[in-house]
Amino acid sequence: MEQGGKPVLGWAAKDTSGHLSPYRFSRRVQRDGDVTIKVLFCGICHTDLHVIKNEWGNAMYPVVPGHEVVGVVTDVGTGVTKFKAGDTVGVGYFVDSCGACESCGTGHENYCPNLVLASNGVDSDGATTKGGFSDVVVVSKDYVVRVPESLPPDGAAPLLCAGVTVYSPMMQYGLNEPGKHLGVVGLGGLGHMAVKFGKAFGMTVTVISSSPGKREEALGRLGADSFLVSHDAAQMKAAAGSMDGIIDTVSAGHQIVPLLELLKPMGQMVVVGAPSKPLELPAYAIIAGGKRVAGNGVGSIADCQAMLDFAGEHGIAADVEVVGMDYVNTAIQRLERNDVRYRFVVDVAGSQLDATA
Ligand SMILES: [Zn+2]
Ligand SMILES: [Zn+2]
């Protein structure tokens, strides 16, 4: 804890139970170039689930989760002209990078080997970073993005991770062109954003899901053009070779060969879900048709700002269930069961943060 730092009230997981409870700590004193932000809303991402229970073996307790932050600027450091008090802003998955490596130099700082994550990361001063499940965050201006006033701040929060994670590869691989056919595998926090962006780009969008019950919502409210049940071999066969690209958002173990069969020759699959077991990729599945498989991890700050501006113009926000911090442990249990449409967002500013659930 930094001496003389700013006292902050948040919620943290203190051990591998992952149970969150109130936690007082202090943030660094605002430096030149920093922005101080009062947190309004913070989304709950699958990554938070893995980290708070130390499922990836990297938890540095106490862990204050949260990397889908929308808030209001309350103060800025000397030399900050880009933001001022009262601005609505966002903070996503990372809050610093080295600025000197090839990734940073080419505008892909999300792949910097010294990326500083917003939560459970190691800051340049050695401190463990603490995320948006707290009343205040202090972040370098270069890692803060502007949230268009036209977007609802609660529905905008998941754009900071889920949104940019699908938008960035769609731009990178040309999966943003009208008339192209996009497959979206899995209809959760990431998948429903990919459907919304795909439709806004003017694409034909097909949702591929293991849950037939999601058909109505996919085709109805979300506006997808068609729906495939992934274990229905006849449906999958009928759609073979029809897609220009696929965004695979599924984080549970699943077969990718049947998905690759949906691609046109030289089609592009992008993996953004992270199953704990390795994906099975026989060479024949990509050699025939010259198909391509890429991974993607969030997006650059420039991509994130472009995504937010696009979302603002097209009225795209996440479908959210807003909860108080006293509900967060229940929300996490429900998220583990995929019992949410499509993202939980904590109303941080509206919660009594020092009251135990
Ligand atoms: Zn995330
Ligand atoms: Zn770097």
Automatic annotation (TrEMBL):
<protein>
    <recommendedName>
        <fullName>Probable cinnamyl alcohol dehydrogenase</fullName>
        <ecNumber>1.1.1.195</ecNumber>
    </recommendedName>
</protein>
<dbReference type="InterPro" id="IPR013149">
    <property type="entry name" value="ADH-like_C"/>
</dbReference>
<keyword id="KW-0560">Oxidoreductase</keyword>
<dbReference type="InterPro" id="IPR020843">
    <property type="entry name" value="ER"/>
</dbReference>
<comment type="pathway">
    <text>Aromatic compound metabolism; phenylpropanoid biosynthesis.</text>
</comment>
<dbReference type="Pfam" id="PF00107">
    <property type="entry name" value="ADH_zinc_N"/>
</dbReference>
<keyword id="KW-0438">Lignin biosynthesis</keyword>
<dbReference type="InterPro" id="IPR013154">
    <property type="entry name" value="ADH-like_N"/>
</dbReference>
<dbReference type="InterPro" id="IPR011032">
    <property type="entry name" value="GroES-like_sf"/>
</dbReference>
<keyword id="KW-0521">NADP</keyword>
<comment type="similarity">
    <text>Belongs to the zinc-containing alcohol dehydrogenase family.</text>
</comment>
<comment type="subunit">
    <text>Homodimer.</text>
</comment>
<dbReference type="GO" id="GO:0045551">
    <property type="term" value="F:cinnamyl-alcohol dehydrogenase activity"/>
</dbReference>
<keyword id="KW-0862">Zinc</keyword>
<dbReference type="GO" id="GO:0009809">
    <property type="term" value="P:lignin biosynthetic process"/>
</dbReference>
<feature type="domain" description="Enoyl reductase (ER)">
    <location>
        <begin position="18"/>
        <end position="346"/>
    </location>
</feature>
<dbReference type="InterPro" id="IPR047109">
    <property type="entry name" value="CAD-like"/>
</dbReference>
<dbReference type="InterPro" id="IPR002328">
    <property type="entry name" value="ADH_Zn_CS"/>
</dbReference>
<dbReference type="InterPro" id="IPR036291">
    <property type="entry name" value="NAD(P)-bd_dom_sf"/>
</dbReference>
<keyword id="KW-0479">Metal-binding</keyword>
<dbReference type="Pfam" id="PF08240">
    <property type="entry name" value="ADH_N"/>
</dbReference>
<dbReference type="GO" id="GO:0008270">
    <property type="term" value="F:zinc ion binding"/>
</dbReference>
